[in-house]
Design goal:
OB fold (Dihydrolipoamide Acetyltransferase, E2P); globular
Length: about 170
């Protein structure tokens, strides 16, 4: 048995590492800033973390409904303690995640209430499309705006980049 001890320890170590690699990281902290409809700062153990909501894209601040999306998100979670299911970190060093308050998925709530689009480029949860369609069908949030004012944020950002390049 003692001869096999290193083998057993190796198997145990590999098992523990594989479990920890698959574990989802959850951050719990207080929302200290709502930057816009899909970005917040939270404080965890006196350290600030910038969080970008996964799978959704809210209008930019200068777009129609941009300020309303930010205000609505602030009404939901500003100053509250939230949990963030970390998915990845983006090129701007923001944590990309799903945000929960009191057990409710706030990413889904923002879509359901019509404050944002499903970000198709990064979408993994296809059920978000049903929430978006329901908001659209019932003219909730930005879906009550005239069609010409409903430019998806990723298209709006591209238009703005192209304008800057022409200058």
């Amino acid at each position: 048995m003692l001869n096999n001890m290193p083998k057993y320890l190796s198997i145990l170590l590999i098992s523990l590492l594989s479990i920890s690699c698959n574990a989802t990281e959850i951050l719990s902290g207080k929302v200290i800033k709502v930057s816009d409809g899909d970005t917040i700062n939270i404080l965890v153990n006196n350290k600030k973390h910038r969080i970008r909501f996964a799978e959704i894209d809210c209008p930019e601040k200068k777009q129609p409904w941009g300020k309303k999306a930010k205000t609505s998100l602030a009404e939901y979670i500003a100053g509250k303690n939230v949990q963030v299911e970390k998915i990845t970190i983006d090129r701007y060093k923001r944590i990309i995640g799903k945000v929960f308050y009191d057990g409710e998925n706030i990413n889904r709530k923002m879509v359901s209430n019509g404050h944002c689009w499903v970000y198709r480029k990064y979408m993994k949860d296809r059920s978000l499309l049903e929430l978006e369609q329901d908001a659209k069908d019932n003219r909730r949030g930005l879906w009550q705006l005239p069609e010409h004012e409903r430019i998806p944020p990723w298209e709006y950002r591209k238009i703005q980049r192209d304008k800057r390049k022409k200058k």
